[in-house]
Fold each of these.
Amino acid sequence: MPQRQAVVPLTLKRVAFANRQHQNDPSVTPNLEVFDPLRCYRKRHSTTELKSKFQAVQLGPDVNTFGYRSQACPGRYVAVAEIKFIMARLRRSDSGETKGDIC
Ligand code: HEM
């Protein structure tokens, strides 16, 4: 049910998208309540056609974390690399490989 209706001709320049609701839809992400770190890895390896899909930086109709098409986030490669770096540092410090401050 539309919440608003245009009564005069209108050209939208930007459109907001309910990404969280979309990604949390069970038809898009089944078994959402289960922590599954290999969810995307398994999708990637399920067929040869999907081998290069479901990457963290990838855009697509079912993955809008970084936007889509011409408005997509140009900083997504930096963002994902940084998140991986932080996770690796945390894991390293957690496994006792470092002493004291991790930064
Ligand atoms: C986890 C981190 C990040 C997330 C989730 C994120 C997500 C997004 C999203 C959803 C958009 C909007 C796309 C749209 O308007 O449809 C966007 C745009 C943009 N992002 Fe990011 N972003 C992140 C990090 C970064 C970083 C690190 C940079 C720069 C180094 C960056 C630079 C930009 C720029 C310049 C735009 C505007 C693109 C345009 O309108 O053409 N973002 N980002």
Amino acid sequence: MLQFVVECYTLFVSKGRELTLLTYDVLIAILQQTATHAASAVLAIIAFYLSLVSTSLPPTAYERLQIDNAIQLLADRGFSEEVFLLKGTTTFRATDHWLNSFVDKENAYASTNFPFQIVTVYPDFYSKAEDNTERAMVLMHEARHLMGENENEAYAYVWRHRKQLGWSMKTHGSTDSYVTIEQQTREMAPELFNCPEKPWEDCTE
Ligand SMILES: [Zn+2]
């Protein structure tokens, strides 16, 4: 994470100035310092973002098509907030940038750097996910991170909305991705599997 260093500084004023003038000068000085610090912070964020983008590769045209198809499926199923973020704010990458080497990844499909809105998409997204629906499920999870949600919230959201997406036990229950994500959801969002009266104790069934 970025850390912004706050500097202390002293304002020197001459003894003979009127109080109102002094107040005005101090106010102007504070505003100037604030503007300088804000500009420095924005430049630091831009430099950090560019360092992430420049140390990774973009998806190929074929990979980009798969990503776009998955986003379109999300749009067709009514996930407009997620689609807005994925289409309008996200930079997709195909390889890890320098920061990702320090970050634990909970699965091998994709990872997100919030608030830089960078989504890195890994080979499993194209090969282990069996169709557009499973790829849309992966992007839905990443879109929740783009909103600042943590793993518990992202897993729980996808699991609660899997039927709206068209990704359920009935349609995809035997795929590697369904089995993997269900297991991960049970670990990351155990509160959803606390209903003994429901099948598989799954409160969303
Ligand atoms: Zn995640």
